[in-house]
Amino acid sequence: RIIDHIHQPLGKQLFLSRRVVTDSSEFDGGVLVNDKGKIEAVLKRDVVNSILTQQLDNLKVIDGGNLALMAGVVDSHVHVNEPGRSSWEGYVTATQAAAAGGVTTIIDMPLNSIPPTITLQNLKTKAASAKEEIFVDVGFWGGVVPGNQRDLTDLIKAGVVGFKCFLTDSGISEFPMVTRNDLAEAFAVLNGSGTVLAFHAELSQNDKSTACSGPGCPDPILYDTYLASRPDEMEINAVSFVASFLPQTDVHVHIVHVSAEGVIPILEQARNERIKAGYKGWRGGVTAETCNHYLSLSSEMIPPGHSEYKCSPPVRNITNKMKLWEYINDKRLDLVASDHSPSVAELKGSNFMTAWGGISSVQFDLPLFWTEAKARGHSLSMASHYLSAGPARLAGLQDKKGSIRPGLDADLIFFDPDASFIVTPQVIRYKNKISPYMYRVLTGKVMRTYLRGQLIYADDELIDGPKGKMLLNEGF
Ligand SMILES: NC(=O)N[C@H]1NC(=O)NC1=O
Ligand SMILES: [Zn+2]
Ligand SMILES: [Zn+2]
Q1: Residues with Cβ within 5 Å of ion ligand 2?
Q2: Spatial CA neighbour of 34 closest among 362, 409, 295, 464
């Protein structure tokens, strides 16, 4: 156990661990944090020992022993749904769940809240409801929908991390999908701005989800019926469609929640062509994320009627899952996020075709990834790379968040990589206690979470009130 005194004004703090984890290595040492909650120095054990012999009065030492000391997780894909659908989720519950899971930054998706984040005014409405309710730092995605091209520049000025759009029905009437013409206009506005355009990459022309209803149709209680309605081609064609815009734009494109493994080689080809044409930005301006559900679940294991497993694109077969792990191993994916997209239980039900698509897991980002990664012999640095550094880079937060490096916010966690716990309704802190992982044993437990040097979660308890900040521009 870690011994220290919790309620003290913030002075200088020295966090110690036998396993300090960065996104590329692990070492025995410490992290010195200043009174502004920023990392001042990252130290090897011999330097730590010489500091400790100096008996500095106002230095608080927090020794985690063998617990891993890691950067807080940055989850770049969370649907908070407030205001408007706050019975599904809200800022308090989503960020409390995040804090309990060692997630120190979330980036809120532009849809499912009413209003959606598609104008500056709507962003103000969202920020007003987030204010004073957030337990971790919160950034915002804007949305691109038909007709809001003129709102995009204002949203960039306000500090959104980028924009998401849909190439198929989003399931939310306030957030319509875009057509080729809408996209061409959006790319024209965004060109040269340095922002990110993220795609829900399923192309509607391949959508078979409404093709059949009534007698004679495949059984909607079976998962395979749903899976067959959203084939790999929906993703593959969407990504090829996105790639067709790249020669005319310098906008960074990001594919969210990749499920079908076949999209990765297509993206790589698009990236290589961009790089050959002289594109200089991060990863050739083409990146992809996958989600813990695609890395943890497979279609064969989904029981009839259990729509807590439903999301889109769908969880595919075990061969697909193994291929995604191969891509993780080879660093051919860029980050892992939750796509935490909750709803109330009434919208789930046992019919896979009509149930709400969305899986809640913001609280379990790290243990979910680690359970699978550890079993495959991967390191904690690998987890930090995909769950912290990668998403921070996507959100443009690489100089603030996502790593253990001098100058960054001291968003830190103590993580026990060998502990295990059971996902139960009592453990879950997000609003609707629905999960495809219910009663599963997960490996790895977040013991403590620090946000900008302040303790916000310890030993299964949240500490004090909300200390999160909104990651929007000064003067917004
Ligand atoms: N609207 C919404 O949150 N949709 C999300 N749910 C899901 O499973 N995939 C999504 O994009
Ligand atoms: Zn999506
Ligand atoms: Zn989503």
Answers
A1: 200
A2: 409
CB-CB contact of 363 with 354 (8 Å): no
Measure 174 CA to ligand 2 centroid, in angstroms. Answer: 14
Type of residue at 313: P
Q: What type of residue sits at position 307? A: S
Assign residue 226 a region: left if phi > 0, alpha if psi is -120 to 50, beta otherwise? alpha
- ipTM for the predicted complex comes to 0.97
Q: Which residues line ligand 1 (CB under 6 A)?
A: 79, 111-112, 170-172, 200, 311-312, 339, 341, 357-358
Using the mean position of ligand 3's atoms as its centre, give its distance from the Cα of residue 339 in Å.
Answer: 5
Q: Which long-range contacts (CB under 8 A, 24 or more apart) does 146-150 make?
A: 146/176, 146/178, 146/179, 146/182, 147/182, 148/118, 148/119, 149/182, 149/185, 149/186, 149/188, 149/189, 150/189
- CA-proximal residue: ligand 1, atom 11 (nearest): 312
Peptide bond into 342 cis (omega under 30): no
Biggest CA-to-CA distance, the chain: 80
**pLDDT tens figures, 193-229:** 999 999 999 998 766 666 677 788 999 999 999 999 9
Q: Give the Cα separation of 71 and 255 in Å (integer).
A: 24
Residue 129 near residue 104, CB atoms below 8 Å? no
Q: How many C-beta atoms lie closer than 10 Å to residue 261's C-beta? A: 24
Those residues with Cβ within 8 angstroms of residue 456's Cβ, 6 or more apart along the chain or in another chain: 99, 135, 136, 449, 450, 462, 463, 464, 467
Q: What is the value of pTM for the model shown?
A: 0.97
The atom of ligand 1 lying closest to the CA of 175 is 1
Q: What is the crossing angle of helices 263-276 and 232-243, to 10°?
A: 10
Nearest-CA neighbor of 291 among 356, 254, 339?
339
Over the range 140-175, which residues count as b (16 or more CB within 10 Å of their CB) and which as e? bbbbbbeebbebbeebbebbbbbbbbbbbbbebebb
